[in-house]
Design brief:
homodimer, 130 residues, mainly beta, Jelly Rolls, 11 strands, RmlC-like_jellyroll (chains A, B), lyase (chains A, B), RmlC_Cupin_sf (chains A, B), ectoine synthase activity (chains A, B), L-ectoine synthase (chains A, B)
């Protein structure tokens, strides 16, 4: 059994900081769960384009408000606590925070912790990191 | 892209009720994400023995307080908001809520929605449901 605490994990290299967001990787590929699990915070007033070409991601809103735009269709979905979105088509999207968003994110395949966001908004597949 | 809302999902058969807990399956196997994602509520003052012999489960505490006892070792871990536990050894455990626990749960393999909790605290593997 693995037990971890977000507040302690934020003091370690599990916390990844970027411009306008950060993400704490509570479970990674090395934990052998078959998925990874992250708590991500989006700063209020910021927007970000992500495109996980090689991963399926679901995002559950724990707190905060914002919206997600499906960049293939232009459709905008409001995000409030209790809303989940799942990028089952590796959907390219723009995520915007009105107030600070706290999001619980699951990834399949699991993120290894070695990925970097590329200019196209994707994470590289594991094979390209080897 | 799939978008769902917990409050709406609770009015559908995505909500499964049991004695002392309920669980709303926001993502199931049929969503083809490779994991399922549930928001589970444990009633205050209740304890439950679970043993997912055929699934890996991670549980992130969104709100509430309680504890988890590893029934193999007797070790008890406190659960507060921000704590995650991952049953990477299919650990048999007792989950107890002091106040209402709201938990974000990821399962691999994904739950189909057809499982029932068996007397031994497990979910049947998919093969046994066929």
């Amino acid at each position: 059994m693995i037990v971890r605490d977000l507040n302690k994990a934020r003091e370690t290299d599990r916390l990844v900081k970027a411009d306008g967001w950060d993400s704490t990787r509570l479970l990674l590929a090395g934990d052998n769960m078959g998925f990874s699990f992250h708590i991500t915070r989006i700063a209020p007033g910021t927007s970000h384009v992500f495109h996980y070409k090689h991963h399926f991601e679901s995002v559950y809103c724990v707190s905060g408000e914002g919206n997600i735009e499906d960049l293939a269709t232009g459709k905008i979905h409001q995000i409030t606590p209790g809303v989940i979105y799942a990028l089952d088509q590796h959907d390219k999207h723009r995520l915007s925070a009105t107030s600070e968003l706290v999001l619980a994110c699951s990834f399949n395949p699991p993120v290894t912790g070695q990925e970097v966001h590329r200019e196209d908004g994707s994470y590289a597949p594991v094979a390209e990191l080897a």
